[in-house]
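Sharing a chain and its predicted structure for anyone who wants a worked example. Both blocks are below, sequence first, C-alpha cells second.
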Amino acid sequence: MVNSFEEFCEEIHKCGFSMGGGNAKGIYAVIPYDWKSTPSGCSIVWHTGDAETDPWEWRMRVLEERKEIAYAKVFFNASGYIAKGWYPYFLAVRRQGMTLEDWYEIGKISYFEKQIYDVIAANKRIAFHDIKNECGITKETNSLFERALVNLQKNLFITMCGRMPKLNKYGEPYGWNSTVFCTVEDFWGEDLTADMDAEEAYQVIRNRILELNPEAQEKNIKKFILG
C-alpha cells in the first residue's frame, strides 16, 4: 500500500503500468480503491485536493513533474498509467509500427480523428477546449468528438500532457482547468518504437499482468492489452 505521491511513482516504475481511477478492472491498479471504498484509516484518500495524498491530484502531478510516466485513457476506454520502459511494448501491439497517416490510408481511423490529430500535432500542446474550437465542434458533434479523442489516446497517437486554465476575453481564468494534449512522439521527445512484433510484445505484457495479478482472466487481459 502506497502512502505518498513519491511512493506511487516508484510503484508505477516497478509494476510498469496500472489502471487509474481506483478500479483494477480485473487487471491491476496501484491504488485499488476509489473514493467510495477508501479503507478505514488509510492516508491515501480521493478528492481531498491534497497533492501528497489525493490520487486524483497525482494524475496531473505525474504529467507535470515526471517525464517518464504517461497518463491517458489507454485501458478499457478509461484512464491508466504506463511507465516509459513499458511504452514500446504497448506501441508495438497497438500501432504495429504504423503512423497515423498509415492508419488513415488503410481506413483504420476516420477523417474526423485525423482532423483532431492534425490540430494537436500542429500545435504541439493544446488544451481540450481549444481543440474543440479549432475543429469547430458543436453540440451535435460533441459526443463524436469525445469518442474520437479517446480512440486516439487508446491507440497511442495522442496523450495527455498537463492542464491549463480557460481564459475569458479579458485573459482572466475561469471554471475548471482544461486537459492539455500532445502527440505521443512530442510527449516523450523521442521515437519509442521497439524492434519487436505485436505478438512478441503482447506476450511480454501478458506475462507481466499475470505476475501482478495471477487471477486475471484472459478476456480481460486481451482487452487491456489491445485497448
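Comments welcome. The mean pLDDT is 93.
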